[in-house]
Amino acid sequence: MAGAGVFVLLVVVYPLWQVLFRSFLDAGVLSLKSYQKVFSYPSYYRALLNSVWISCATAALCMVLGTLLAFLVVRTDLPGKTSLRTLLVLPYALPSFFAAIAWIQLLGPQGYLARLLLQVFGSAAVPWNLYSAGGIVFVLTVHYFILVFITVAGALERMDASLEEAARASGAGTYRIMREITLPLVLPAIVAGGLLAFIGALANFGIPALLGMRARFFVLTTSVYYALAIPDFGLATALSSMLVLVALISMALQFGIQKGESRYTVISGKAVHPAELKLGASRYPLFLFTVALVVCISIIPVLSMVLTALMKYWGAPLTAANLTLQNFTYVLKLETAQRAVTNSLFLGAVAATAAMFVGTLISYLHVKAKLKGSRVLDFLATIPYAVPHTVIAIAMILAWAKPPVSLYGTLWIILVAYLAVYLPFAVRTTNSTLQQVHDSLEEAARASGAKIFPRLRDIVLPLARPGMIAGWILVFMPALRELTVSILLYAHHTETIGVVVYNLQDAGYREIAAALAALVMALLIAGNMVIRKLTGGVAGF
Amino acid sequence: MNRRPRKLSLTLLAVCGMLALTSAVVLAQAKSPSSVLLYTSVPQQLATQFADAFMKKRPDIKVEIYRAGSTEVGAKIAAEREVGGIRADLLWLADAPIYYDLRKRGELLGYISPEAKAIPADLKDPKGFFTGGRLINMIIAVNTEVTPLKDAPKSWKDFPDHGKKAVMGNPLYSGSNFVTVAAFVQKDGWGWFERARARGVAIVRGNSEAATALAGKEFGIAMTLDYIVAGLIKKGAPLAIVWPSEGAISVPSPIAIIKGTKNPDGSKAFVDYVLSKEGQEFLVKQEVIPVRDDVKPPPGQPSAKKIKFLPIPYEWAADNAPAIREKFEKLMLQ
To answer: I need a labelling partner for A514 at 20 to 30 A (CA). Which of A38, A340, B6, B166 fits?
Structure first.
């Protein structure tokens, strides 16, 4: 407990405090001027409202889509479900501004689809507008539904089959079993995933920045960026505090929903896997539906990125003469790119491992050991998820760039920042995992005289492992492409993949940036295959 | 079940190995006294190749580069100021107003380079706090497949008439757009922007987004930077550059030395190289218009002397920055 406490203090509380108290300063004097600005300027409070409704809509859609797909892929006899699962997780490895660009290329006013419509109907006007609030919700949903999908898929896998079987034996129909048994059992996971999607959408910058500007639609994160450009530190931090406040309220709501926690715990650990649901006549229609979804949300954006990587310049007509491999050879020879891949692999692996370790510890203390004060720890560890990454980066400079402990300019400051950014993922995913492991198992072990360490090793960890591996991947993938934190903290020789992609993109080398992103994607697919091979299909997606 | 813990410990071992390896790399990179740290928004490739060329000439000085957008560099500097001062030795941004702010705070080192003689007076600070290092120009770019060149606007005045077919970058994000807005406003007030808003001129984040959206045929004309467009033209995009009749907005992209530098000699040597004939000739190869009169511009581009400039009220812009940004936001973005 003390160890976890110190960790959270150093990685989360101290740096964020460095930022927070500056939001109450005006030229060195204590003042509420920045907050006054937030509530007296229509553009700022409108941004706050926009952020809230955009995130609510995104979370709701993510919960529906993520749960539905997790159910189809985990519990039914859908054909080809293993490959479908891998493909669904894939686009999460795309930096969010790349996802936005991919959708602009596809659905934008001059996108591939608009050009197709022009040829078929002779009119280039597409009936929708991607540069709008609706467009932002759409792309955010496609980007974040995976958070619900992964948590729910994990929960469905660990679910005890006996309850369903009992219901079936008593003559309940499939639909009724799903509605009255399965759905309530995985509800904590759905809500936990929904919360992750909500806060993720709230804190996302890349997508609203690219899609919102032309619609003159602003959210809190884009306003924070403006405030930094002015630069008005106080205003930026005051706006960020608003973001944290919204996130805290949503977390409090989640705590409220899950008050009766024991309702959801499921004795697991038996080697009985839930029965595969036979889809029967709807098997192929549902298969086609899932394939169509996978094509839309995974294959097309990735393909559009690969296509860009093969182009001489972005927007070139699609002819063979404009296709080239030179972007790939350029990236492979680029020294910074090679270094960035090494750095990001290192940062991602260490951040994911350490965050999962501490996250599991905090979750265990809170969910299982129910120690006093552990709820506060759990709460504090979740806050950074709602803080815009730029603000986290600034917090790290303020906290860890001055002697005696100066990590500035090294990989370590980026690592500390990643730990802060991804600890919430670890805590939230293991929380829902551990909630499903019924206390009685540990109590039985305790009654038989097992001490805490053997109990953890022999009972809790084995049961929580699939959830933990899923959580590890949830941290590793975004860490591999992280941009916003790294761009402020990187130094000579500590570039990350995100930084290199951004700097290429920003200089107008969109096709070279796409080539690098495509190579990273290939790396992830290969890594995933190795993990699956090594663990015999237990881990990986 | 028994095999898995072994896999886990193997993974842990691998992670520890990587950790040790990387920490060794980090330790080996402790900053040496002969190195200079450059913060820049100059495109990555250009900055790296330029620094390499300099280091070939001066192998005793090592140039380390931190490259990000102007806003990120600004935020980094602001955060560093709070914790013991700016870490960079050199600053080379497109964002001119920040230099006036730094000068006011007394954070720049005055250095009149012997090379600065060949640079026109309006591109440098009289006391040598900063000197124009490359000339980037805000111009009108045209996608000739969307808007034929004969229909394209010849002046800034006609730009807003193209309404939804026209695009510009956001001055709240980009420094060069900010000075453009300041120049327009100081000359003619806000009328131009009111017209642009009424006709539906689109606002995107920055100049490279405006240029790529233009190349992607989303727009017919764009207010953007000449060297980005020249780069796209070189790759085959159907774009053209129009030099507006009122004059282009030329941002001298100044280079400056931070007062707290631990390596003033190395920093000065780099500034000299940037301003030297050799340095400017190197930039010309990357489609950049030179600041010196005695260096030929890239083919197809005018020389600094031939370009008609719209004067930029830097001091006024720096003093009124918050008000200008606020007014722009109210007028164009709400």
So the answer is: B166
The band of B264, judged by pLDDT with boundaries at 50, 70 and 90, is very high
Are the CB atoms for B65 and B48 separated by under 8 Å?
yes
Residues in CB range of A59: below 8 A, 6 or more apart: A194, A195, A197, A198, A201
Q: Pairing state of beta strands B136-143 and B221-225?
A: antiparallel
Interchain proximity A487–B26, CB inside 8 Å: no
Residue B258 and residue B112 in one domain: yes
Locate the chain A residue with the closest alpha carbon to B201: A214
Shared domain for B149 and B246, answered yes or no, is yes
**CB within 8 Å of A533: residues ≥ 6 apart:** none
Whole-number Å distance between alpha carbons of A83 and A88: 9
SS3 content of chain A, % helix, strand, coil (to 5): 75, 0, 20
- Binned at pLDDT 50, 70 and 90, residue A262 comes out as very low
Q: Are A152 and A70 in contact (CB under 8 A)?
A: yes
The amino acid occupying position A37 is K
The DSSP annotation for B28-49 comes to: HTPPPTTEEEEEE-S-HHHHHH
- Helix, coil or strand: residue B175: helix
CA distance A494 to chain B (A): 9
The three-class DSSP label of residue B262 is: coil
**Is B27 part of any domain?**
no
How far is residue B93 CA from its own chain's centroid?
5
Nearest to A204, CA basis, from A222, A186, A191, A192: A222
Residue among B7, B15, B206 minimizing CB distance to A350: B15
The lowest-confidence range among A392-406, A462-476, B11-25, B47-61 is: B11-25
> Most B CBs within 10 Å: which of A112, A217, A487, as the mutation test of the B interface?
A487
Tell me whether residues B215 and A492 touch, CB distance under 8 A: no
- Residue in this structure with the two tokens 């303020």, named with its chain if needed: A398
Helix, strand or coil, per DSSP, at residue B134: coil
For A490, the closest chain B residue by CA position comes to B66
Looking at beta carbons, which residues of chain B come within 8 Å of A214?
202-204
B293: domain CATH number? Answer: 3.40.190.10
- CA B314 to chain A, closest CA, distance in angstroms equals 16
Tell me whether residues B211 and A508 touch, CB distance under 8 A: yes
Query: What percent of chain A is modeled with pLDDT above 70?
Result: 91
Q: Does residue A455 sit at the B interface (CB-CB below 8 Å)?
A: no
With cut-offs at 50, 70 and 90, classify the pLDDT of residue A285: confident
ipTM of the modeled complex: 0.75
Domain presence at residue B120? yes
User: Mind telling me how many Å the CA of B202 is from chain A's nearest CA?
Assistant: 6
Q: What is the pTM of this model?
A: 0.80
Note whether B187 and B215 are same-domain residues: yes
- Specify if B310 maps to a domain: no
pLDDT at A121: 75
Our count of domains for chain B comes to: 2
By the CB < 8 Å criterion, does A312 face chain B? yes
The answer to whether the Cβ–Cβ distance between A408 and B202 falls below 8 Å is no
Q: Give the residue from chain B lying closest to A392, CA to CA.
A: B79
Helix (H) or strand (E) holding B66: strand B62-67
Judged by CB atoms closer than 8 Å, whether chains meet at B80 and A397 is answered as yes
SS3 state of residue B76: helix
For chain B, give the percent of residues with pLDDT over 90. Answer: 42
Q: Which residue of A has its CA nearest to B167?
A: A214
A540 within domain boundaries: no
Question: What CATH number should be reported for the domain holding residue A165?
Answer: 1.10.3720.10
pLDDT at B30 over 70: no
Number of domains in chain A: 1
Residue A357, domain extent:
2-535
Among A110, A226, A491, select the one facing B217 at the smallest CB separation: A110
